[in-house]
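Our preliminary data section would be incomplete without showing what the modeling component actually yields. Below, a chain of 83 amino acids is followed by its predicted structure, encoded as tokens that our downstream tools consume directly.
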Amino acid sequence: MIRHEIESQTALDCESIARLPVLDSFIKESVRINPLDKVAIRRKALKPYTFSNGGPHVALGQIACVPAWDIMHNDAKYSNPDV
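Predicted structure:
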């Protein structure tokens, strides 16, 4: 399917690649299953912060992270997350 979609294009420039939904889906799913890093976002606190739900407190200078791998492999969000 991907090969056929690519071969149907007369040129492979940014605009034509953006119009390839099968290739786009393949790339997104590949990155979801095999993220480049287990932690997607890292931010250093410039001031103390407490989450509005009373969750964790982040002190000045601490690093807060988003666990990309855990989110992308959550079976509550994705059916068969490891497939």
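The longest strand covers residues 41-44. The chain has a mean pLDDT of 89. Preliminary results of this kind motivate Aim 1 of the renewal.
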